[in-house]
Amino acid sequence: MADADDPVEFFYRGQGSKRLLKFIGEGDGFIAPQDLEDCESEFQPGVQMFLGGNTICGPPPPSIYSVVQLAVAAMYESNSTSLEIPLLAWDKSKLIGDAVFDETILDDAEQLTGKDSVQDVLKRFRNRNSPEIQACTEMFGNREFTEFGFFMNNAMGAFTYGTQVGSVESRNAPQPAKCPRTQMSPVIGIKDGEVSFASGGTDYLGTCTSLLGALTSPEGVQSRTPLLFKKGDGLHSLNSDKSLLAGY
């Protein structure tokens, strides 16, 4: 990575992973314990919330799981399955980035699970018939996705110039981070000290729907995102068995 022309592209767009896997594959090689002697593991505390009799938990930033959790909490409290709620909660994803570049991102992610954030989303949802002004032009940019789930905006929002160091906007500075984040949002539900369900993927709305269904009516879940629910002797898939449960 240190020798790469663009370390950010090398890491977040998966160039490094592809080259490593290609090197291992062509050489019929494998990674042994001694190859990792100079590596250190980094552990981050998970994001969790008590909801519907379950403790639901998932990964911290750069995953947008905390936004998923906010959306589901708002849907659960309002007893609504309207997809307008997670779309309103999505606005908070601008606060998510890689904590390697800004440690305060973890604090903001934790606040997203609080009652104030939930009530803010619900207030906007209930006032959704109020006049709104939106501008949809090319100058506002487009999200650029990678096959690994990371995404960044190619104009405003993710490439803000002239900001003060330490400000929220500085996370979106052109270099080095470009506000990287991932929609990969694995989630585990725990009830009475045991795993009750697991879900996850890169489909934001699908993950929200799957998680809400697990908390309210697991047998009737209709979502592209796979959901494993505890039944008797283990975890069973409640939707497409062709789907992959994605997480990290």
Automatic annotation (TrEMBL):
One of its GO terms (cellular component) is plasma membrane. GO terms for biological process: glutathione catabolic process. It comes from the Eukaryota. One of its GO terms (molecular function) is glutathione hydrolase activity. This is Uncharacterized protein. It comes from Ancylostoma duodenale.
